[in-house]
Amino acid sequence: MRASADDTITYDFTAELYEWTGPAAWHFVTVPVAISDEIDARTYGLTNGFGSVRVRVRIGGSEWATSLFPDAKLQAYVLPVKKAVRQAEALIAGDEARVHIELVDVS
Predict the structure, then answer these.
(1) Organism's domain of life (predicted)?
(2) What global pTM score does this model have?
(3) Quick one: 54 exposed, middle or buried, by C-beta within 10 A (0-12, 13-18, 19+)?
């Protein structure tokens, strides 16, 4: 975790991209448990629907706004990685992605 002079909270990690096994072709990376726990503590009472947390994300040269979603089974947040980003960064399921996230709403 890094906090900048303007109190922006950011995290960097590497995680495997995977395709959700449900009926849609969503792809995700799982935020490491330790980082998920810290995000949960920092955003307590500030989450949106479904416990989602608004973030800005960068993978490679692609940046976008999205939300992290809690996954009770994993006990961690998951980050959806949209098709345009996967294509721009030449990522497929099973690839490792270097992820930079910035919390949008923090206490």
Answers:
(1) Bacteria
(2) 0.87
(3) middle
